[in-house]
Amino acid sequence: MPPPTVVTSASRLAALLETLLDEPAVAVDTESNSLYAYQEQVCLIQISTPDADYIVDPLSGLDLSPLARFFADPRVQKVFHAAEYDVMCLKRDFERMYGVRLRFANLFDTMWAARILGWSNVGLGSVLQDTFGVQVNKRYQRYDWGQRPLEPDALAYARLDTHYLLPLRYLQADALTQCGHLEEAREIFDQVAAYDPMPHNTFTPTDFWGVKGTHDLAGREQAVLRELYAWRDQEARRQDRPLFKVLHDRTLVALAQACPRTREELVSLDGLKSHHVRRYGKHILQAIERGMRARPPEIPPPPPRHSGAEVERFQALRVWRKQAAARRGVNSSVIVGKSTLWALAKQNPATPKELESIEGLGPWKRRKYGEAILKVLRDAGEVGT
Hints:
The protein is built from 17 helices and 6 strands. It is of the alpha/beta class. It has 3 domains: 5-193, Nucleotidyltransferase, domain 5, CATH 3.30.420.10; 205-293, DNA polymerase, domain 1; 308-384, HRDC domain (DNA polymerase, domain 1, Orthogonal Bundle). The chain has a 6-stranded mixed sheet, with helices on both faces. A hairpin with a 4-residue loop joins strand 3 (42-48) and strand 4 (53-56). The longest helix is centred in the last third of the chain and has 22 residues, at 363-384. The mean pLDDT is 95.
């Protein structure tokens, strides 16, 4: 294959946009740097047409807002594999960097298509291997896409994420039409396209309650953990590194439990490396000291629990979903998502009209499964009385 065209100038972007708007379908993917930055961002946008592969560089200082026109154009189908993360990240970054509220029209997700078709392997590497005999170099799955310059082999890897998506889409669209599930797929694709932007990495002092093991600590230890958590966030921002690359959550909990007061005690703590002590020892001890002097934090109220009747309805729906999935030979989530099951269990609709208010149940799913769902809910109510 010829090398991909790397887009780093306004003139090349304008030419690319003109090309894209003339195509019936275009493949798209992104690469982000979540493993290497405090606030991740999209570092590459890979785009493929039937004739060429392109790599757009968001880190080149280029204003990418003109691409919003392409993403929103219903005449051009945007083909992704596992689109959810890409859609959410692109929406976040376009709003943050260019003040543009990105909208996706006419999306096709080859991973969801594979799931609806009942394929046993739906990861892109497996799909490319099974369908086209293409083997992807896994070395670049954890690559730092924020570094520049990028290795030629990394660019070659990135372009493979979109190079075969268009022929894959045509195979899948034909198969979905033949088995009568194209409308179902389109309904799911539209739901993915409507996902909200990925939230920014924000910090509030009470976030430490989300650390596993916090509620097992004594009050004074929780105060220490709160101070350590705040210090780690500040340090991660300063270094522009992910939180876990400063100190892992379980190390913070171990520090809060042990409350070491000297560097010697830090060295002996399991999970804390010698380079952590050299680099952060002073600040860790200061945070522990602040926590020891602080008042223990107030425990937040527990989240609302589902009622017994809601749990019974959910379990009945889950049994029905598993059976329906087995009959079709697909994963249970293809039938109805877990969040939709809980919405059904909570709202307990009794009529087809009431099903219309359930998020995740589009017209196709209501026609296909609505009667069965209402029966499950009625039966569950009779059992509970």
